[in-house]
Amino acid sequence: MDRKDILKRVTGYIEKYNFLVVLSIVFAAISSLLMLYVPILAGKSIDFIITKDNVDFKSLKKILFICFIVFVTASIMQWIMNRINNKVTYEISRKIRKDGFEKIRKLSVGYIDGCQIGDIISRIINDVDTFTDGLLMGFTQFFTGIITILGTLFFMISISPIIAFVVVIVTPLSLFVATFISKHTFNMFKVQSEIKGKQTGFVDEIISGEKIVKTFTKEEDCIKEFDKINDELSVCSMKAVFYSSLTNPSTRFVNNFVYALVAICGAIMVIKKPGVFSVGMLVTFLSYANQYTKPFNEISGVVTEFQNAIACAGRVFEFIDEESIDFDNESDIVIDSVSGNIDIKNVSFSYDKEKKLIENFNLSVNSGKRVAIVGPTGCGKTTIINLLMRFYDVDKGEILVDGKNIKTITRNSLRKNYGMVLQETWLKEGTIRDNLLLYSDISDEEMIEAAKKSHAHGFIKRLKNGYDTYISEDGKELSNGQKQLLCITRIMLNIPPMLILDEATSSIDIKTEIRIQKNFKKLMEGRTSFVVAHRLSTIKESDIILAMKDGNIVEMGSHDELIKKNGFYASLYNSQFEQA
Q: Are strands 430-431 and 470-471 parallel, antiparallel or unpaired?
């Protein structure tokens, strides 16, 4: 996205708060104009000091009282303006972050699988924070700066048009310098944000895979890789900060030159026109010259910071604009319950369109049948599960549930009719009870009964607080087997008409697995079930066994039928009893 597109998007978020923005401008104008009135009062007070023994104290007291009122009123106005700016800025930040988080929910599984999680986190958290800081600085300093420039210009012209003309001619040089530098720093800040995202993604990957790193003693390699990314960020940040930091000294040089020029011209006028241009007027003019140049420094700083903010906003908007694959049409139907008849017709699918995976896949499963899918790693077993659940959509062909194409069924209603236990477990931060019920309206008795069937009740009772034991994200305090037992219990609490068991007992000991299989057998009765397993001894009683290779079904039948064929399945089955 270029800067114009990004600014349009930002303006779209601000439109809702137009009234508050206008109100902020009004308060900024009042506070700025009040502060601009102070130099006039200061100039008059100096003129009241006529000679050493000739001072108009009565008039001085009156001016000091007016100054006090002006300062108090301006401070209150500025406080209100800051409150408004903070509200607008953080409301916009909240809305952008909400849009970003909602986008995660709408993105396809394929997109999430193909990108760094840390980069997404960096966009929604770090980049939005940077954008918020830049926007807040813009609201707070930009409005005040513009009004100060216009106000001081008006007062200077009213005092001395000639000196005001000199100031107006020279001062814009600082703005030109700031603009030139800001144009060249935008791309640097953009690259800086991208490298930060890359760094966050790498750190997230290493932390989540800490055991793997330590197992293969890759600590030094990881440190070297991190140092490489860190060095890239350091170089990029140094360039961005160096060039952006040139703005302030450059503009200050121009501003100090203007101040000196005004002092010289004003002093000459005081000497040559003592009755027309007084010392107090010179002091007032010098104060205005200083106030006139000061906003240029602030605005240049705002422009520099805003370049960084816009670069970060662009990354956030690019993420928000990603295509929402996981989106249902209004015409899609909602299914409450199904009998479980599934037909897969001429389905072709591949994750990488240049590498074929599943070609012309056909399968028909009647309601209540148990289907086992076996085959070597990468043959497409889990892919079939992904397609049934619509985590991915087929490239060609169709999948029917009770005669309805799943592309015409809402994803939520389709998935509610599946019960799913994967090899990879998912547990959230909270108690064991929260993870089992997921806020469903189920009694404690039903929960405990399900836990007994899955043989999870024993280890849960041994925990410090039983079912109220608090676990962290992904249940790091539990073993893989215990986490898998909790996931199995969750399915037994909400039994849908169709089941998917993808290596559901891979982390569980053999003795417990045999016990669970008996309960699974009861669970599958009358329900269409798909079982993916490497332990082929656990699927012998399946109604249909699909032996897959390279994305195709090479053999199909019952266990006894396939063993008699002495083909691919028989080879797989017998290999588990062979000695190395």
A: antiparallel
Q: Can you tell me the distance from the alpha carbon of 474 to that of 480, in angstroms, rounded to the nearest whole number?
A: 10
State the Cα–Cα distance between residues 387 and 346, nearest whole angstrom.
13
Greatest Cα-to-Cα distance within the chain, rounded to the nearest angstrom: 125
pLDDT at position 398 is 92
160: which 2 tokens?
């001395």
Distance (Å, rounded) from C-alpha 568 to C-alpha 554?
Answer: 8
Radius of gyration of the chain (CA): 36
Other CB atoms within 10 Å distance of the CB of residue 137: 19
Whether domain 91-320 has CATH 3.40.50.2300: the reply is no
- The C-alpha atoms of residue 288 and residue 63 are separated, in whole angstroms, by 18
SS3 361: strand
**Confidence (pTM):** 0.65
User: CB of 36 within 8 A of CB of 155?
Assistant: yes
Q: Using CA atoms, how far apart are residues 93 and 127, in angstroms rounded to an integer?
A: 10
User: Whose structure tokens read 């062979």?
Assistant: 578
DSSP state of 468: G
**Cα separations in angstroms, 387 against 119, 121, 207, 242, 408:** 27, 27, 31, 52, 14
Amino acid symbol at 573 = Y
Average pLDDT of the segment spanning 320-343: 79
pLDDT tens per residue, range 26-54: 888 888 888 888 888 877 777 777 656 67
Is 1.10.3720.10 the CATH classification of the domain at 338-416+536-580? no
- The Cα–Cα gap between 461 and 443 comes to 17
Contacts 24+ apart (CB under 8 A), 443-447: 446/493, 447/489, 447/493
Cβ atoms of 299 and 141 closer than 8 Å: yes
Kindly list the domain boundaries of the chain, sorted by start residue. 91-320, 338-416+536-580
Range 387-413 average pLDDT:
88
Instruction: Say which amino acid occupies 66.
Output: I
Provide CB contacts within 8 A for 197, sequence distance 6+: 116, 118, 119, 122, 123, 126, 127, 315
End-to-end CA distance of the chain: 58
Asked whether the CA dihedral 512, 515, 519, 520 is positive or negative, the reply is positive
